[in-house]
Amino acid sequence: MFVRHLSLTDFRNYVTAEVALAPGPNLFVGSNGQGKTNLVESLAYLATLGSHRVSTDQALIRAGQDSAIVRARLEYDGRELLVELQLNRAAANRAQVNRGAIKPRELPRYVSTVLFAPEDLALVRGEPSTRRRFVDALLGAKSPRLIGVFADYDRVLKQRNALLKSARASGLKSEKLSTLELWNERLVELGSEIMAERIAIVAALGPFVRDAYQAVAGSDQEPRIEVVLSILADHPEADDAEATVAAAAELTREGLTDAFRAALEKVARAERDRGITLVGPHRDDLLFRLNDLPAKGYASHGESWSFALALKLACAELLRADSITGDPIVILDDVFAELDQRRRGRLADAVKGYEQVLITAAVYEDVPPELTAQTVRISAGTIVDASGEPTTPSTPGTPTEPTEPTP
After folding, report:
1. Cα dist. 350→111, 220, 234, 314, 335 in Å?
2. pLDDT by residue (tens digit) across 304-335?
3. 33 a known binding residue?
4. What pLDDT is recorded for position 210?
5. What pLDDT, in 10s, does the model give residues 161-170?
6. Which residues contact 351 (CB under 8 A, 6 or more apart)?
7. What CA–CA distance (Å, rounded) separates 100 from 98?
């Protein structure tokens, strides 16, 4: 799969943009703040329904405008696919595929990307929520139906938390909350599926992470990933990742369900006192190890960078191995400036075999020559050619607004 053409209207700092892309490496070059990342961010959004820089859609819509449009013409195995998304400031987002309305959450079925950016260092050094989003994004890319499962779990979690807060305020005991048991069962059903899927995909990802780390860092260090389950902790604030990792490895899907129910019973009093759900996949984490030591707190800056990059390259390899629509589009956002010459060359070797690679850089010379054949220069939200003159759009005209999606 690769993008043949990208069109933006009122997305970030672009009034309009028309960009012709080619298979293989495509390099976007420009000074900081000119809009390079905005281009690749728009494509990544189509695949993940989220931004790697902000948590809401509002920042993606150009200031003063009510909506933004992202349109990508994809090609796979000689077939073309037109994917369109309209982000709305005061209404629901809308989407189309080949001019037919779809629900926006269905877009990841048609677009597959893996993006690596400097922000991904937080995968190793940041909070558990960052690692949860990472593994869930991979699950959604691999099995788009799980996006609906995540949304359902979040809704049930909010309803259950609202009930617990109401009970705390009114002084009701948990055994008198007749509806709590109903929410418990739904929470356990959805949460057990999420935990089982996370455990399975982490196990599948492991060998790819080891290979990718070796490819990037060129060392014989042993990176590992394991799932830390909150339902197996001694208490909600316990720092016993080692114990939960060991116990999780022994659990079947049925065992996960039983353990979740038991954990809810164990923390029932604490949940009533605090008015919040204390165990479940929303409280889980991933444990990254390097030579049997936790990468967080032990890995050097260079090792952390290599680990984070290996995680994303491993995702690309896993998706490539399972995909029926070809390679994912690999996006490297402002990465080469952070790497030394040796690692730049190793990264170029690792990605050059993908069907399409999109790269952003502030300095042209930072990028290995084998990745610069197709170069697009960006200046102040305008696409310019190598001579610095504005480029004539290859498909001129005002984008057609997507129609209302079907219910």
Report:
1. 22, 17, 42, 11, 14
2. 999 999 999 999 999 998 877 789 999 999 99
3. yes
4. 95
5. 999 998 887 7
6. 25, 313, 316, 330, 332, 357, 371
7. 6
CA distance 42 to 8: 8
Please tell me what DSSP assigns to residue 195: H
**Region for 280 from its dihedrals, namely left if φ exceeds 0, alpha if ψ lies in -120 to 50, beta otherwise:** left
65-102 burial, b at 16+ Cβ within 10 Å, e below that, comes to eebbbbbbbbbbeeeebbbbbbbeeeeebbbbbeeeeb
Q: What is the pTM of this model?
A: 0.87
- CA-based end-to-end distance of the chain: 29
Give the DSSP letter string of 248-306: HTT--HHHHHHHHHHHHHHTHHHHHHHTS--SSGGG-EEEEEETTEEHHHHS-HHHHHH
Give the helix/strand (H/E) hosting 143: none
Model pLDDT, residue 405: 40
Question: The tokens of 385 are what?
Answer: 């050619």
Mean pLDDT of the chain: 88
Question: Tokens representing 304?
Answer: 């952390």
* Tokens standing for residue 294: 């936790």
Query: pLDDT tens for residues 192-247?
Result: 999 999 999 999 999 999 999 999 888 778 999 999 999 998 877 666 676 677 67
User: Is 48 marked as binding a ligand?
Assistant: no
Structure tokens at 76: 């796979």
302 marked as binding residue = no
User: Is 31 annotated among the ligand-binding residues?
Assistant: yes
Q: Please count the CA atoms within 13 angstroms of the CA of 90 that sit on its side-chain side.
A: 3
Is residue 86 a contact partner of residue 34, using CB atoms and an 8 Å limit?
A: no
**What percentage of the chain exceeds 90 in pLDDT?**
69
Q: Annotated binding residue at 42? A: no
Contacts of residue 80, Cβ cutoff 8 Å, sequence gap at least 6: 4, 73, 74
Where do the domains of the chain lie, and which CATH numbers do they carry? Answer: 1-112+330-407 (3.40.50.300), 121-322 (1.20.1050.90)
- The annotation status of 30 as a binding-site residue, yes or no, is yes
Is 58 labelled a binding residue?
A: no
Tell me if 159 is assigned to a ligand binding site.
no
Query: CA separation (Å) from 327 to 269, 276, 330, 344, 374?
Result: 49, 41, 8, 22, 19
**The pLDDT of residue 71 is above 60:** yes
